[in-house]
Amino acid sequence: MRDPWNDSELVRRFEEHAGASLPRAPLNAALCTTIAADRSLSSLLGHAPVTQQLPVLLLAAIHDQVLREPDRPLADWYPNLTPTPRDPHDPEFVGVLTSFVHERSPSILGTLTTRRVQTNEVGRCALFLPAFALVADDVGPLAHVDVGSSAGLTTLLPHYAYRYDDGPQIGHGPLIECSTQGSGPVPVAIPDVVTARGIDLHPIDPTDPTDARWLQACCWPDQTDRFQRLADALAVARSHPPTVEEGNALDEVGRVVSETAAGAHPVITTSWVLNYFEPEGRRAFVDRLERVAQSTDLSWVIAESPAMTPELPHGDGLVGEERTALTLVTWRDGERDARPLATCHPHGYWLHWHE
Ligand SMILES: C[S@@+](CC[C@H](N)C(=O)[O-])C[C@H]1O[C@@H](n2cnc3c(N)ncnc32)[C@H](O)[C@@H]1O
Question: Which of these, 31, 36, 67, 330, is most buried using a 10 Å CB contact count?
C-alpha cells in the first residue's frame, strides 16, 4: 500500500506550486490545483524517484504528452500551442485533463521514472556576450567551455542575434533581446569563438526529437516567448549540433579547458549550475580552474546567484545577493581578478550594470 503521508505531501506540493505559479503562469496553476484535488492524479508523482518528486516533473510529463498529440482537446488550453487558449477556469478543463492523463498513465509513468526536469536557457547568451566581448578585446579569439551545459544551446552563442535596448541588431540568427539599466560594456559585435564545448552530467541531445521534445516539455507552457526562443534554438542546433561531453564537471573541467587552450583563449561559462553543487564541490571547482590558470591564461563568466553559490568569487558587494550576478573572472599570468559586471534576470531578459 502506498504511504498515505507521502500522498498528502505530494498534494501539499501541488497546492504550493499552484499558489506560486499565479499570476504569471495561470495554466500551470490550474493544472496543479486540479491535480492536488484528485489523488488519482497527484499520486502518479509518487512513482518518480524520491528526489525528483517535484510538481514540475508531472507537469512536464503531461506537457510532453500534449506535445506528442497537439490535436487532442487538452492542447486548446496550452498558450504555447494555440494563439487563442481556452480559459483554465473553464468548467470543462478538469474533465478533459483528467481523462487525458488517465488514458495515458502508462506512458506518463514511463516518463516520470526515466526523465528529470532539465532546462537550457538560451536567453543567458545575452548575459555572456558582453563578457565575451570584453575578453576578446583583451586576448583575441576564444575557446568556449560551458559547464553544466544541458543540451549545449548556449555553446551556440555566435549563431544567435542580439539587441540591447533600442540598439542595433548584433549578429544573425534567432533574436535574443535584453534591456539594460545603467552604463556598461554593451557589445557591438559577436567575438570570434573558434571552438565551443559543453560538459554535463546528463547531456540532452537537441538533435534527437525525443530529447528535444522533453526539453520543450520542461518549459512552462504559459511562457510562450521562452518556448518560442527554445524552439528557435533547437532549430539552430539541428544545423549546428553542439558538442557536449557527459561527465562530472569536477572530473572533466581541467582536462577540457587544457585541451581547448591549445587553439584559443579558454572562456568557461557557468549559468545556474553551481547552485546544484555542494559547498565543497564549488570550492573544488574554483580550485580546478585555479590549477589550470597557473600555466594558462583563462577567463570565467559566472551567471549564478551569489546567495546560492557563496564560495564563488562574486565580489564583496554581492554577498547574499539572491538575483543572478554576472561576474567576469580572469587569470592572467596566474593572477586572479574578479569584475562584477551586472545583476541580471535569470533568463537574460534584462541586466543592470554595476558601473
Ligand atoms: C539548470 S541547468 C542549467 C543549464 C545551462 N547552464 C543553462 O544555463 O541553461 C543545470 C545543468 O547542470 C548540470 N549539472 C549539475 N551538476 C553537474 C555536475 N556536477 N557536472 C556537470 N553538469 C552538472 C545538470 O545536468 C543540468 O543540465
Answer: 31
